[in-house]
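In the lab's daily routine, each protein ends up as an entry in a very long ledger. A line of letters takes care of the sequence, but it says nothing directly about the fold. The three-dimensional part falls to structure tokens, numbers that each stand for a local backbone shape. The outcome of that step, for a single protein, is printed below.
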Amino acid sequence: MNSFNDPLLYIKGPPVFHLYPIGSIIQMKTEMEMEVPMDVPKKVQDESTSIYEIRTSMSKKTLAILEKLTFLAKPFQRRAYRPLVFYVTGGVYLQGEVEKVDDEFVTFLVGSEETITYRVDQVEKIVWRGTEMK
């Protein structure tokens, strides 16, 4: 034997095996078979590998910003990513944090109690510590 096959941990004692009684295995199989009715036709559903539905109404840039805003709305990220500056259409920029994100709207917490709501497609870029978030 070489060192790769040697056990890493030696425990002094007899080997332990957990075996189910034969009667319980047969009982479990019959219960599983009884749960599926044979006379009901099964409906075939389309399988999808995607986790979420792709929004086709938004551009790729808007979808990327929506993803960043959703990430920044979580409690830990709200504390960790400070100060954030949000550049909105019309040359407006806001310094604050993301309070809430819906499918189309984002609410920013500016100052201590002031909240401002914009459409997600109006947010042009997000800057953290002087660099744009990618």
In short: Residues 82-133 form a domain with the SH3 type barrels. fold (CATH 2.30.30.100). Strands lie at 84-88, 92-101, 105-110, 114-119, 123-128, 131-132. The chain has a mean pLDDT of 78.
